[in-house]
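Methods: holo model generation. Sequences were used as deposited, without trimming of termini or removal of tags, and paired with ligand SMILES retrieved from the corresponding compound records. Each pair was processed once, and we did not select among multiple samples. The sequence and flavin-adenine dinucleotide SMILES for this entry were:
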Amino acid sequence: MRVDASADRFLQIDHIERALANPRLREEWLADPQTLVVGGGSNILFVTERIGKVVGIKAADHGFVDEGETILAFAEAGLGLDDWVRLTTAQGLYGLERLAEIPGTVGAAPIQNVGAYGMQLCDVLDSVELWDRQKQVLLHWTAEQCQLSYRNSRFKSEPNRWLVLRVWVRLHKKPPADWPNFSYPGLADEADAYLMTKKSPMSALAASDMAEIVTRVRRKKLPDWRQLLPGSLGSFFHNPIVSLQHANKLKANWPDVPLYALDDPDSVKLSAGWLIEQAGWRGRIFGAAGVYDRHALVLINRGGADGKEILQLAEAIEADVWRHFAVQIKTEPMIV
Ligand SMILES: Cc1cc2nc3c(=O)[nH]c(=O)nc-3n(C[C@H](O)[C@H](O)[C@H](O)COP(=O)(O)OP(=O)(O)OC[C@H]3O[C@@H](n4cnc5c(N)ncnc54)[C@H](O)[C@@H]3O)c2cc1C
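and the model returned the structure below.
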């Protein structure tokens, strides 16, 4: 979000096993629940300007294990998630392509089960190597043990306990049965334009092409995280889940309201972006903060806003969405 915050002490892990062999690092830094683990900082809103101890993993090795039809790929926590997507798709492997252009690190990806364009990390996750900061032991959890769900995980429900060290995913040498699936809004048009410039037929579309198509769609809708400004955290709010009864009431008043069916027939997922836009917030500016004009779910720092101003804006939006629709929207990023 490009707000200022300083750590009193910062420790960077360049080599995972060597670092964990160091008792001072384990006891003084990691066992202290006050120590904050930071990856790329693309999902943290700093409201406090002084943070105590901060740990970051820089180790960014990656590799593959060939298992016949599938490949097990691992990456260390410090690798950029987008770099991992490019590395695997460049090898012709299918599985991570729709996560292209999401900022941040591999280590943070399981924390909120990153997802975009119809896929989530849990679709390919095999296992996670981690350090239990409380019990001071190394663990290797299966995907099931991580309990990933929509923008959530076991890690998120027990904050400051886990240090993700390596992530393993199962990728495919061949495209999935429904390849290429362009059902997610915006992808089909971009794919046509992309294939036309590449002078390539749809049948030749590879995982790296899908990553490029997703990238192009994202760049039209979201702030460019490689630029300094505007600062953002991507989607600031979760898509809320409401009862079917409440969804039907909304439909009666707003026939265009998008409703997404869930496995539970009594619940429906709504689009937080739609609700915020209908409440009139898209593109509104509040001093140095604002709501992005191309995407109502994205709050921005136009330069010079502090964390408190961003949080106040978020709270005003939450209250207004509640006033209009009686729907509670919740913030997605970690607030420090
Ligand atoms: C422009 C933009 C677009 C975005 N689009 C998407 C999107 O499409 N889908 C999506 O899911 N997210 C999206 N995000 C949110 C963000 O990119 C992801 O949540 C990402 O996984 C955060 O990675 P990070 O390394 O920056 O984590 P940070 O912000 O540094 O940390 C996030 C959380 O993970 C914890 N953490 C970080 N590393 C570790 C580790 N190694 N071990 C344990 N805990 C750790 C932190 O303590 C914190 O709680 C977007 C953000 C921006 C700015």
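The CA atoms of residues 261 and 325 lie 19 Å apart.
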